[in-house]
């Protein structure tokens, strides 16, 4: 095995110039990852003070420019703007002639596939949808988290290899998502990740109200084990009073939540009903116990309406 030193990525010839339109939490991190792979960030656009700070931290010495100027300079352009802003941005850039033939145009929206880039495609751009299935903080730790991160990849068939190569260069794992499946794919990720944050935050608030001084320390091992079990076993990992059909305990929960944190009752009931359905379907919840449990959940809903 050779022991000769490997060249530093910074010493490699740059293969693509990279621009970022939208210096939110995602764009600068992806550009920094591409820089580590030997590409060269050359321009970034950002309006808010927070965007400018992120760009300065993750892409030092890369100049701030307008979106049109970014496209003028870059071979590969990352469009990392909010989902609702993406179609209008693409149409505007295409209409102004900013898009160049042969230019790689990459968006990172989970909701959209490559079709949202059709205006740029008609102008000669090469459209790619590369969505990292990861939460971002806007700090350098995001670049490290890309290692092993799955990316939802959608692109024309002739660009599939190019799209997957870029993901691998950023340290990620490409997962092909069909154009028509992008909204469902994104809904699944939001259900798992975004709602998880809400559930954990509410749980910590309730534990503090119950007198627990360090709810994060209490929840860490429990939630870590629950997540690991769920990823390994799916519905077979269900535990707790709903899966057991313990209607009395669930009724006590609803009463306490209604007294101390009424804003959490609707979420508790909705998740309990979904859990009961899954436990029943998987054979964990006995049908003879489900009737009383579902009655408690129905009464809890009536209490909300009243």
Please, could you describe this protein's structure?
This protein has 13 helices and seven strands. It is α/β, with parallel strands linked by helices and 306 residues long. Helix 7 links the parallel strand 6 and strand 7. Helix 11 (247-260) runs parallel beside helix 13 (287-305). The relative contact order is 0.07.
Cα radius of gyration in angstroms? 24 Å
* Secondary structural class: alpha/beta
Give the strand line-up of the largest sheet.
2-1-3-4-5-6-7
Q: Would you tell me the overall average pLDDT?
A: 92
Percentage of helical residues? 40-55%
Distance N to C terminus: 74 Å
Taken from the alpha-carbon principal axes, the silhouette is elongated
Portion of residues in beta strands equals 5-15%
Return residue spans where pLDDT drops below 50 for at least 5 consecutive residues. Answer: 1-13
The beta-strand count equals 7
Overview in brief:
The protein has 306 residues and is of the alpha/beta class. Helix content is 52%, strand content 11%.
């Amino acid at each position: 095995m050779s022991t000769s030193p490997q060249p530093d990525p910074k010493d490699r010839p740059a293969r693509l110039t990279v621009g970022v339109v939208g210096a939110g939490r995602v764009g600068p991190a992806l550009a920094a990852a591409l820089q580590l792979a030997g590409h060269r960030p050359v321009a970034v656009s950002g309006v808010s003070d927070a965007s400018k700070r992120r760009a300065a931290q993750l892409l030092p010495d890369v100049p701030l420019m307008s979106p049109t100027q970014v496209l003028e300079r870059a071979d590969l352009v990352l469009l990392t703007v909010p989902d609702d802003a993406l179609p209008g941005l693409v149409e505007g850039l295409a209409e102004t002639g900013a898009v160049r033939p042969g230019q790689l145009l990459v968006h990172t929206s989970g909701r959209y596939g490559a079709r949202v880039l059709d205006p740029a495609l008609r102008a000669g751009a090469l459209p790619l949808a590369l969505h990292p299935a990861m939460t971002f903080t806007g700090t350098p730790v995001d670049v490290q988290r890309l290692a092993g991160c799955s990316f939802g990849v959608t692109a024309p068939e002739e660009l599939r290899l190019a799209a997957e190569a870029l993901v691998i260069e950023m340290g990620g794992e490409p997962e092909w998502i069909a154009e028509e499946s992008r909204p469902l794919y994104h809904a699944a990720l939001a259900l798992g990740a975004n709602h998880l944050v809400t559930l954990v935050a509410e749980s910590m608030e309730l534990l503090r109200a119950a007198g627990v001084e360090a709810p994060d320390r209490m929840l860490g091992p429990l939630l870590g084990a629950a997540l690991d079990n769920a990823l390994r076993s799916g519905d077979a990992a269900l535990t707790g009073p709903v899966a057991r059909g313990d209607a009395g305990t669930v009724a006590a929960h609803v009463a306490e939540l209604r007294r101390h944190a009424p804003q959490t009752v609707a979420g508790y009931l909705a998740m309990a009903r979904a859990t009961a359905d899954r436990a029943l379907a998987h054979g964990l919840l006995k049908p003879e116990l489900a009737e009383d449990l579902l009655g408690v959940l129905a009464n809890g809903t009536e209490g909300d309406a009243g």
